[in-house]
Design goal:
The protein has 255 residues and is mainly α. It folds into 2 domains: 36-185; 197-254. The protein is built from 9 helices and no strands. α5 (118-140) runs antiparallel to α6 and α7 crosses α8 (231-237). The chain is elongated. This is DUF2637 domain-containing protein. The chain crosses the membrane at residues 55-77, 83-102, 122-140, 152-172. Keywords: Membrane, Transmembrane, Transmembrane helix.
Amino acid sequence: MFRTHRTDDQGETRTVQKLRARLAESHQLHDLTSDPLLHAVRLERFRVSVTRSMWFFLALGLGFTTTGVHEFLAGHLTPAAALWWGAWLVEPALAGILVTLLRWEAEMLSRGLAVDAAPVVWLKRLLLGATLVTNVWSSLRPPSGRVEYGVVFLHVVVPLVVFLIAEVMPVIQHRCNAARDRVMATAAPMPTIGATASSAPRPALKLPSHLQAVLGTKAAQVREQGRAITPADVQAAVNVPDAFAAQLADQLNAA
């Protein structure tokens, strides 16, 4: 005896209904995962993750080089000398300047501004060059008088790695931002936010619903202050390039 599948009023079996539901879900997932702004958000999160990792390893490298700088300045002294204690502050001070400079570079690059001015480049090279020289010198002239070639190798490689990390980080920022902007430039147009399609003077950016909600909340707060929405207000709510922020601000003000 053959077993038959149950059917609904339209003559579809349960298997067909399940496949139809899966197909509908697949279409919805494809529409969501292929949204350019979703890719832009993923790129931004990836940039933040890579940047944090680079900061972490940069801090580890600077922690190692601190011992070399101290050895160079006060390796022949004892803790009874004031310089022995003060020497521990030299490399953290230099590293603090470098970290502050790198943070400024990252912020400027995230806004699409170049940071290749000669004083900036030379300041980074001076800070990292001083770290390299002091570390190598202290390893070649240890207080014990015995040169350990493994220690010399580390005191050469680690400062060089720190130097290259400092040079690579702006490149990472720039390329990730360029990739994000390229993805956002492919965003399909949609009706103006807060207005009907017929009233839109020009195509608008396509924003996911959660970003529209965040932007709408920010727009309401600005309107309560009795002023027009600016690109800075838009960027305070959502992370978008300047051109897109200006367009969104015009759309919200028109709406």
